[in-house]
Amino acid sequence: VPLTYFEFGTLAAFVAFTADHCDAWVLEVGLGGRLDAVNAIDPDVSLITTIGLDHQEFLGDTLEAIAAEKAGILRPGRPALYGDTPVPAAITARAAALGTPLAAAGEGFGYRRDASTWDWWGGGQARRGLAAVPGWADAQYRNASLALAALAAADPALVPAGADLVPRLAAAVPAGRFQRHRHGDHEWILDVAHNPQAAAVLRAQLALLPPADTTLVVGLLADKAAAGVVGELAPLAQRSIACGLDGPRGQPGEALAAALRVVAAGSVVAVASPAEGFARAVRDTPAGGRIVACGSFRLVGPALEWLGLY
């Protein structure tokens, strides 16, 4: 049975982590959980962030069916954490069957926030009166509380002191996840959000920024829920550019433009490629405006290269 691209990459990571004698491994499941290559490893702590509709052709058409696949990463007697509410019944049932200690957001750990500060608690620890993290919406605080609770479950000494915590969190911005960059006369925001749930989080983060003339540059693979994604984002933009993506799962820009025209507040144009979309965005966006490039790794990756960031 031939290995897939992802399986080769996973094995390469295992080899690299072993060769460098890493103290800790943080492994992100590629798709689902039960049958994912990462699930070959027995984790000390398992995290499930939240459940949304994505990859239904592989994982099932309901949140509970997808939750059952995610629950495949749980292990007997090893702590598990679920970062949202309510906890899907499939995850609760799997944890009970295995004897897995399960902590859920708002119960075993959580956060509270106001306009300027936030509190976190979990695993018998707490950090109070932390400064708000610039640019964070509720989803980022929720995910941070989950990550901190996982650290506390693995080793309480890993949780940073209060004075160190916010600077570390603020600096922990992966490429392509609400990545802000000034290029020429425009602010660029790069985000790989490619399902409606992630697009809603991106919209919430954009709402925290000062108003600006905005161009949306978007590309989506053909198997994504285009109407749901663009329905969240297109109303925020003065103009939208639909980019064609290549590859077996790609789709031409005009197909995405049709979905955009249903919900867009401004003009919509279709282009053949991400690079053409970026050039068009620079030309059409007034100086001082904002360009939001999103929808796929296959769009954000070329954007990083086009901007000279990678």
Structural description of this entry:
The strands form 3 sheets. Strands 7-8-12-9-10-11 form a 6-stranded mixed β-sheet. A 3-stranded parallel β-sheet has the order 1-2-3, with helices on one face. The protein is α/β, with parallel strands linked by helices. Helix 3 (63-70) packs parallel to helix 4 (89-98), helix 7 (196-206) runs parallel beside helix 8 (226-233) and helix 8 (226-233) packs across helix 9 (253-263). A hairpin with a 3-residue loop joins strand 4 and strand 5. The longest helix has 17 residues, at 138-154. It contains 11 helices and 12 strands. The model has no long low-confidence stretch (mean pLDDT 94). The chain is globular and about 55 Å long. It is 37% helix and 19% strand. The chain has helices at residues 5-19, 56-59, 63-70, 89-98, 138-154, 162-171, 196-206, 226-233, 253-263, 274-284, 297-306, and strands at residues 46-48, 80-82, 102-104, 109-113, 117-122, 125-131, 179-183, 186-191, 214-218, 239-243, 267-271, 290-294.
Task: Show the helix and strand layout.
Elements (H helix, E strand, L loop, with lengths): L4 H15 L26 E3 L7 H4 L3 H8 L9 E3 L6 H10 L3 E3 L4 E5 L3 E6 L2 E7 L6 H17 L7 H10 L7 E5 L2 E6 L4 H11 L7 E5 L7 H8 L5 E5 L9 H11 L3 E5 L2 H11 L5 E5 L2 H10 L4
Beta-strand percentage range: 15-25%
Mean pLDDT across all amino acids = 94
Which structural class do the helices and strands define?
Answer: alpha/beta
Order of neighbouring strands in the sheet with most strands: 7-8-12-9-10-11
Q: Give the radius of gyration.
A: 21 Å
The H-and-E topology, N to C, reads as HEHHEHEEEEHHEEHEHEHEHEH
Shape: globular
Report low-confidence residues grouped into runs of 5 or more: none
Q: Helix amount, in percent?
A: 25-40%
Largest sheet: 6 strands, mixed
